[in-house]
Amino acid sequence: MPNPLDSLKALGDQLRQQIGEELDLDALRRQEPARPLEELLAELDALPGLESVKEQVRALVAFLRVQARRKEAGLPEVATMQHLVFLGNPGTGKTTVARLLAQMYRSMGLLRRGHLVEVDRAGLVGQYVGLTAVKTDRVIRKALDGVLFVDEAYALSREAERLDFGDEAIETLLKRMEDNRHRLVVIVAGYPRLMRRFLESNPGLRSRFSREIEFPDYSTDDLVEIFGLFAAEAEYTLGEGAEDALRGIFHNAERDESFGNARFARTLFEQSLNAQALRLGEGDVENLTHSELMCLKPEDLVAGARSLGEVPVPPPRGGGWFTRRR
Is 60 exceeded by the pLDDT of residue 28? Predict the structure, then answer.
């Protein structure tokens, strides 16, 4: 027969763990002061590409500031939802911009904490009846006074012939968005085509999200800049001809909706490091100079691209470096 004291202790541990997860008391204690809004806007402007996104974010921030000033002046506010839809392919900066927006909301006094809680279908939907509402509610409590970022939100809406608990997560989310409209901002994100279908899957969704921000794929120049940022952060340099090779890789990459954008640049950088290590490892590693340890050569990028399915071809005069293996 189980000891009642042991059962009581287990229940107490469970409650302490649950309360700690939901309130994140340590995070509350160590929270830093809100960053100035202009500093956050400058960080947004420093991101590679995304010019249309930056313009829309600035318009949103300006609108919210003006409405706050109207309220202070005793004028009526225009009722608007702060919840957003981010439309874009993978690796287009949606999470980065969401994190900056959360801090901007805090800086403007709209959110007390301004933290970001990122979740997907697995974090909201349970496997049994009744579990989904509990999971979704728990995530929302963690996100209160901040931003809940639901990535690949379209996965919550069920297909007509398939029964699951995604609808329960949507209904719970919609209710809590209304109940906590002054303490919670929700951003749903995903592929443009699938997200538009998701918004039409429930009558309450479209009315809750007042703005859509579309994140375009990065251009070749943007991806070269992003690769350069990864390299500079890790103290690597591009050798002679490496940037041309890099531009050829990005130019010839297939740009369907599964293209990884910045993730592709990150993966190419990591594979290029492996290739450089193999090249340098063929010699006397102990006597490598500082510049040799830092330099990524065109052949390193070629090998890195090849490992990702890109096949180099002899460059035509004035042409690029690569063709795809399909």
Answer: no
